[in-house]
Amino acid sequence: MEKTILVTGGAGFIGSHLCEMYLAEGYNVVCIDNLVSGNMNNLADISKHPSFTFVQGDIRDAELMMQLFKTHRPNQINHHAAQKSVAYSVENPSYDLDVNLVGLMTILDCVKAYPIEIFIYVSSGGALSKKIEGDEKSAETDTPQLISPYALTKFTGEKYIEMYAAQYGYDFTVVRYANIYGPRQVPDGECGVIPIFLNNILADKPSVLMTYPDMPNGCTRDYVYVADVVEINKLASEKPTNTVVNVGTGEEIAILDIYKEILAVFEKDVAIFMEAPRAGDVRRSVLDAGRAENLLGWKSEVALHEGLTRLRADLEVAK
Ligand SMILES: NC(=O)c1ccc[n+]([C@@H]2O[C@H](COP(=O)([O-])OP(=O)(O)OC[C@H]3O[C@@H](n4cnc5c(N)ncnc54)[C@H](O)[C@@H]3O)[C@@H](O)[C@H]2O)c1
């Protein structure tokens, strides 16, 4: 049977890697993206693939979305389009609400009219992290801190996906990502600490570490290489879990240590300065991904040093 997947935000960093994977797996891929942060260059290798359709448009455009569903009748949706920045959501919560929830609702209205089989919804394990004490990790069952509009819209989106699944009969997986990095990531938003540092380092410009006074090495995060993220999406399309799964390595790394690792892998030596943290930033975040392993057999395979080494190789090829 033909498999057609709608990838929203497919011209973005993660979405473009997913479009490539789904085509390689034999899906028809329909990608919608308004290119607000995505880029057609990310789709250069697949834009002429006979099973690939690109639609430039906004997920909040109800008429366009309904037409797209009517024409392509996707069996699956992988929803990556979003306002993705914690800091920007604090500055402009209305925009965050509009893209992340009104946009989702526009898609769900289409699902009511044109039923699907599987919905993959992307959430944020970092922003939804519980308050971490000692050497614990954040699990899916923990209560999230919800200290930014972005955390609130992603969490509410999860609940809509679950509620609509019960009402309209699709299977789903919510993938709660840690901090993802890899080729095509651009330095912006919440998710850009590695490309922001890297851009500065390659230009021999000092970077700024935004942190709390009692955390001299910076806030902590869990970093996952994009190939691992592609793999869990592949698995979630094959075997729905009907629950939330964390996508993390379980390794808690301070931002200063990330900076030092980038310097080492790229063989550079550039200064870094301290500043106060941004509103909405969680202090510590590290994910327990045991549920992803139990339900999908997924485990992060690419350690940080290996991921940064692959990123360096990719940038050298692109030169
Ligand atoms: N990168 C990370 O570390 C990380 C961590 C947690 C969650 N996420 C989530 O993963 C998803 C993808 O993030 P990314 O890092 O690839 O970012 P990205 O900015 O590269 O991708 C988002 C894509 O969505 C598109 N888009 C935004 N608003 C749109 C709209 N209204 N209509 C149509 N398209 C729209 C953008 O143009 C872009 O191509 C987002 O949902 C983000 O919240 C990312």
Automatic annotation (TrEMBL):
Domain NAD-dependent epimerase/dehydratase per the UniProt entry, residue ranges: 5-248
Domain of life of the source: Bacteria
InterPro entries: Epimerase_deHydtase (IPR001509), NAD(P)-bd_dom_sf (IPR036291)
SUPFAM superfamilies: NAD(P)-binding Rossmann-fold domains (SSF51735)
Residues that span the membrane, as ranges: none
Protein family according to the UniProt entry: Belongs to the NAD(P)-dependent epimerase/dehydratase family.
PANTHER family assigned to the protein according to its UniProt record, in alphabetical order: DTDP-D-GLUCOSE 4,6-DEHYDRATASE-RELATED (PTHR43000)
Name of protein: UDP-glucose 4-epimerase
